[in-house]
Amino acid sequence: xxxxxxxxxxxxxxxxxxxxxxxxxxxxxxxxxxxxxxxxxxxxxxxxxxxxxxxxxxxxxxxxxxxxxxxxxxxxxxxxxxxxxxxxxxxxxxxxxxxxxxxxxxxxxxxxxxxxxxxxxxxxxxxxxxxxxxxxxxxxxxxxxxxxxxxxxxxxxxxxxxxxxxxxxxxxxxxxxxxxxxxxxxxxxxxxxxxxxxxxxxxxxxxxxxxxxxxxxxxxxxxxxxxxxxxxxxxxxxxxxxxxxxxxxxxxxxxxxxxxxxxxxxxxxxxxxxxxxxxxxxxxxxxxxxxxxxxxxxxxxxxxxxxxxxxxxxxxxxxxxxxxxxxxxxxxxxxxxxxxxxxxxxxxxxxxxxxxxxxxxxxxxxxxxxxxxxxxxxxxxxxxxxxxxxxxxxxxxxxxxxxxxxxxxxxxxxxxxxxxxxxxxxxxxxxxxxxxxxxxxxxxxxxxxxxxxxxxxxxxxxxxxxxxxxxxxxx
Length: 475
Ligand SMILES: Cc1cc2nc3c(=O)[nH]c(=O)nc-3n(C[C@H](O)[C@H](O)[C@H](O)COP(=O)(O)OP(=O)(O)OC[C@H]3O[C@@H](n4cnc5c(N)ncnc54)[C@H](O)[C@@H]3O)c2cc1C
Fold this sequence. Notes:
Elements: E1 20-24, E2 31-38, H1 42-55, E3 59-62, E4 78-81, E5 88-91, E6 97-101, H2 106-113, E7 118-119, H3 131-136, H4 144-147, E8 154-161, E9 165-169, H5 176-179, E10 188-195, E11 197-198, E12 203-211, H6 214-223, E13 229-234, E14 242-249, H7 260-263, H8 278-283, H9 288-303, E15 311-314, H10 315-319, E16 336-345, H11 349-362, E17 369-375, E18 388-397, H12 402-418, E19 422-423, H13 433-440, H14 442-455, H15 464-469
Parallel strand pairs: 2-4, 3-4
Antiparallel strand pairs: 1-2, 5-6, 6-10, 7-11, 8-9, 8-10, 12-14, 12-15, 13-14, 13-17, 16-18, 16-19, 17-18
Helix pairs in contact: 11-12
Flavin-adenine dinucleotide (FAD) binds next to strand 3, helix 3 and strand 10.
């Protein structure tokens, strides 16, 4: 491996009080103050391990903070910040293998690669996720059934861990699928090689199909065998009403559409409102009547153009629409955006999803955004994906509704257990240790602890979520 180790681990430094920073989970429901350290070299990582050991202060690994809860937060910890560890290093024009440092965001990667016709094989709904965050959560996209998870497109990754030092890990390594999807608990991922996807056009053909019932929705998912991407938006106020959307890549040669200038949409939305100011306008609608009204409008607009032959959209505009409304989550302030996302086996989803919405409607805490995707099982150890569906529900937490929302989340969690669900930790801020045990199973948790005892025998790396769920600590 081409990394040199010249750190003298005996010269530990105690954290500098001037480095204290406040970090939030993406949805503003969790916050922590920690000692930030910018990583600019491998030595910085190794020194941080030494300092953590000497000072008794834990380390938390922080990507770009796009996880909704506390998975990259830990009060009082040394927080290793990836912002400056962010270069795309190379792209092989023959094979499409791209090597990047782990702080590179999906946006940095597509901007580097798309002009040459290479696209990321799997992306999240935001391009602001870092490579480290994508690997640690083993993210999925709207093409999960077709293409699997992010980790399935990795040739190798490099990791620095307190217990084993520097290593290059390939998919045939027995710990690969514990590190990928390992939530930054085993070590600091330094860089990775991604097998990119070759494209000749930067557009996708997107078609909407409005639904009136859940049965219609599941039939659309199940009978769609030739799309590249599949997702549904559902109305949280009117159970069963929603819009199933599929998209297909274009095989024609369209070099102009690979340019960044074609990909990035206008910075204005309807009524010429600047998108970076939209969260102020959205705030007026971030309440039950406002969201009920907007959801109804969205559905009616789709009814006017059912299966309309499709519209061409740039890949970036299709995959990351929310990124072009910067800081949209601030519309939920002074409250918070709490997301609940679970994966549910295929046969259980048709009963579980309407039951979730009934519970939310009974509590008068309807989710303002509901997204459904279809999945295949994922090889990572603590994955929430299975042969089935996932649902993500966005709730508005306010000071007044917080106790009721907690009760609702508990009810949804219990319903999820009853349907054999697993929880996506990128979105979690409230689960309990017994939920994690029921969700992932004791065997997977024990295997994870075994890996932790080898990679991080002194439990130097942690996060509030892992402490709360008691998953990783060595006995
Ligand atoms: C609008 C939006 C849409 C989203 N859509 C999707 C989606 O479609 N599919 C999906 O799967 N997810 C989705 N997500 C979730 C998001 O992709 C994940 O939470 C992702 O992990 C965030 O990465 P990050 O770079 O922001 O890192 P953070 O959120 O800061 O951290 C994520 C994890 O990475 C770990 N980590 C950080 N640095 C390192 C390192 N150097 N080495 C090892 N581990 C490290 C952290 O400890 C933490 O466990 C979405 C999030 C948002 C806000």
